[in-house]
Amino acid sequence: MPYASALTRLEDPKIKEIGQTETGLSGKIAYDDEYTGPAFDPAEGARLAKVIGDKTILFMANHGISTVGETVAEAYDRLYYVERAAQVQIYAMWTGQRLKQLPDAIVEKTKRDIGGTSLYHPGPAQRHFDALKRILDRKEPDYAT
Predict the structure, then answer these.
(1) Of 53, 54, 57, 47, which Cα lies nearest the Cα of 21?
(2) Strand order, beta sheet including 57-60
(3) Model pTM?
(4) 127 found inside a domain
(5) Which of 115-121's residues contact partners 24+ apart within 8 Å by CB, and which partners?
(6) Is residue 21 part of a domain?
(7) Range of 52's domain?
(8) pLDDT tens for residues 39-89?
(9) 78 in a structural domain
(10) Burial of 46 from C-beta contacts in 10 A (0-12 / 13-18 / 19+)
């Protein structure tokens, strides 16, 4: 995840609420501001678990990101969208112009409109993951062996 990992190298690594995707991630990201070296000690894993808490995405300073979910599909879907959000934010930052933050009322409305439980089964994350597997099945079927 080069774009999200690049953000973790910044003084302010936070995903800004500058569009719908970013707003959909709002409130789901935890930020660990202290890089402590390679995580070979189980205590570091416990520390990071405490940092992520009830969130589903963890930005680890000077390192990268991690995602969690009830399923692999959910964790991957979050990874996919946080990387897209980070990419757009970095592209916008490259212009040198100030980022246009969405108003709080629009952020809250957007979160309500796109959040919550899916009425579909399988849900969007699983459908996304299944579609990616179908592409791999066609283009690179040996991944499954």
Answers:
(1) 57
(2) 29-32, 57-60, 64-67
(3) 0.87
(4) no
(5) 115/24
(6) yes
(7) 2-115
(8) 899 999 999 999 999 999 999 999 999 999 999 999 999 999 999 999 999
(9) yes
(10) exposed
